[in-house]
Amino acid sequence: MNKISKEELEEVINEFQYEGKLVFIKPYGSGHINDTFLLKYEIGYMGSLNVILQRMNREIFEKPVELMENVIGVTEHLKKKIVEMGGDPERETLNLIPAKNGKKYVIDSQGEYWRSYIYITDATSYDKVEKPEDFYESAVAFGKFQGLLSDYPAESLHDTIRGFHDTKARFLAFQNAVEKDICGRKASVKKEIEFVLEHEKLTTVFDTLIRKGEIPLRVTHNDTKLNNVMIDDKTGKGLCVIDLDTIMPGLAMNDFGDSIRFGASTAAEDEIDLTKVSCDMNLYEIYLRGFLKGCNGKLTSKEMELLPFGAKVMTFECGMRFLTDYLEGDHYFKIHRENHNLDRCRTQFKLVEDMENKWEIMQKITEKYRRMYK
Ligand code: ADP
Ligand code: GN1
Ligand code: MG
C-alpha cells in the first residue's frame, strides 16, 4: 500500500460529516491490516469528539463496497438487538460516521477507500492480557457476539476474503510461495517449512465434518484477537467487538481458537525469545469459561468437543500465513522490523508444539465444561 500523504488525509477528512475544530490527528492502534488514525474535534467551548478514521486495505479487501455493506448490515442488526436488551448502541457496537454525500465511506482521488467510526471512549483494546479478568470478559463478549448474529441472514454476507479460514487453501498458497521463492528466502526457513509439511494433517481437521453436516456454519467474526474487542475501563466488561471486516459464515471453533492463539500465549505474537512462548492452561480455561457463558448454551456438544482443535488449527494456520507472507516479501501483514513475519511465524509454531504437549490437559479442561453445558 502506498504511504498516506498529509494532502490525502486532508482531502479525506474534508469529505466526512465531522463537526467542530480538528485539534489533532495521529496514527492509531496496532492492527496489522488497515491504516488507522485517531482524530480529535473540539466542539463549542466544552465539548469534544474523538473519531477513528481508517483507510481500508485494498490489496487485501478487493471489494470494499461489499465489505462496507457487510459492516453496515451487521452493525444495524447489532444496534437493534442492543436497544431491545436495554444496552447503549452508541458504545456497544461500531457507529459509522457518514460522508458529506450520505455514503458511509469515502473514495479519495487515489482510488483508496476510507471509513470513519465514532471513537469508543473510556474503553481499551489490549494488545496482551494484563489481567485474566479482561481475557474472561473478552471471551464473554465474543461468545455473545456470535449469539447476537445467530439470526443474521448469512446468505446476505459477502465473502470479503475468499477462503479466509480455509486452512487447506492456505496450505496450497504456502506451497506455491515455497515453490516460487520470489525473495530467495526459502533456504533460510527450512525448519519452518518442514514444520508445516509435518503438520499437513491439520489443514483438513474440519473439512469432512462440515461436509457431513456434523458441525454448523455460523455467522462468525473470524478475527477474534484480544485487541479486536473494547473492554470498558470502568466496569471491566467486554463492551464492543470491533474490526468487523471478516464477518462471514465460519466455525465457532475458529473464533474460539483464534482468541486462544493470541491471548492465552505467555508472550507477544512477535516475541523473539521462544523460551517465553507457551500456551497458558489457566488462561485457556478462563477463556473457555467466558466463551461458553457468552454463547449461552448455543454450541452443540460436538462443537464444544472440537474447541481445542480450533486453537491448534488457528495457531498453525496463522503461523503458516506469516511464513507465506515472509516468503512472498511481506506484502500482506504490516511489518515493523526485519524478519517480523518470520518471528511471528516462529511464535505460532512454538505454540502449536506446546499445545501438542498439553493436548490431554486441553481436552480434559474442555470436557469438564462440555459436560456442564450438555
Ligand atoms: P485492523 O484491521 O488493522 O486490525 P482495526 O479495525 O482492528 O484494524 O483497528 C485498529 C485498532 O484501532 C483497534 O485494535 C483499536 O485499538 C482501534 N479502534 C478501532 N476502532 C475503534 C473505535 N471505534 N473506538 C476505539 N478504538 C478503535
Ligand atoms: C490480522 O486485522 P488484525 O490485525 O486484527 C489478520 C488476522 C490474523 C492477525 C494476526 C484480515 O488481524 O487474520 O490472525 O492479523 N486479519 C486479516 O495477528 O487478515
Ligand atoms: Mg484489528
Automatic annotation (TrEMBL):
GO terms for molecular function: kinase activity. Gene3D superfamilies: 3.90.1200.10. Residues 1-131 form the EAL domain. Signal peptide: none annotated. Pfam families: APH. Keywords: Kinase, Transferase. Its EC number is 2.7.1.162. The keyword Glycoprotein does not apply. InterPro entries: Aminoglycoside_PTrfase, EAL_dom, Kinase-like_dom_sf, Pseudomonas-type_ThrB. It comes from the Bacteria. This is N-acetylhexosamine 1-kinase. The gene is nahK_1.
